[in-house]
Amino acid sequence: MKEKIYTIPLSDAFAEGGECPFCTLEKKLETEQVSYALGASMMEPDSRIVSNEKGYCRRHFEQMSREGKALSLGLVLDTHLNVLIQSLEAAKEMPKTKGGLFKKSSDSDPLTEALEKNQNSCVICDKLNHTLEKFAEVFWYLYKNEPDFKEKVLACQGFCLPHFKLLLECADHELSGKNLEEAKAEVIELELTHLKRINDEVNWFTKKFDYRNQNEPWGNSKDAPQRAMEKLSKFL
Ligand SMILES: [Zn+2]
Ligand SMILES: [Zn+2]
Hints:
The chain is mainly alpha-helical and 236 residues long. It has one domain. Helices cover 72% and strands 0% of the residues. Helix 1 packs across helix 2 (21-37), helix 1 packs across helix 7 (123-145) and helix 10 (177-207) runs antiparallel to helix 11. The mean pLDDT is 92. One zinc ion binds at residues 20, 22-23, 159-160, 163, 234.
């Protein structure tokens, strides 16, 4: 049952606190995936095929280069470049299809399309997106069926905006009717409460620069800009 595999890491992430439990989760998964990319993945032919075809984004290449596995990284790059060059050479030979009246001509250039496909693909990003969607499904399953979990959620500090959006979209196909309306309303309320809370913390942060407030306590505001950025975008 999928719930079992996902429940523990999800509950652990909520127990950890912070501005977004899904970011906590994603960070852990990302670390695992980066080391997998230069470890076990290299021994698995199917993973190698995916790695050769998709490649990695800049963020994940940089994380891979910090792993200290120079030879593994070299091998990943070598075979990926090989497959990429083959696909670009094939695309170069393909005839351009004429775009329609309202279509930009670059839309139908096979070489541009091949380059775009390469730029938008990353083994690790794809894996993270896929796994986070599964976690979002389990989130709503538990929210509906486990009162303890729901209590934990409503006591958390909300979510970053991208993960909040993911949850709302997922709710639409995981819940229905009155359950859906109520659950969404509760989580939207939670999010707005914490957006206002972080706004207040950032506001006090700026006021602390006024000499009249210099002896006032910081409260929670010292790291408020950092946490506000975490709230507004996925972890950096
Ligand atoms: Zn997040
Ligand atoms: Zn990536």
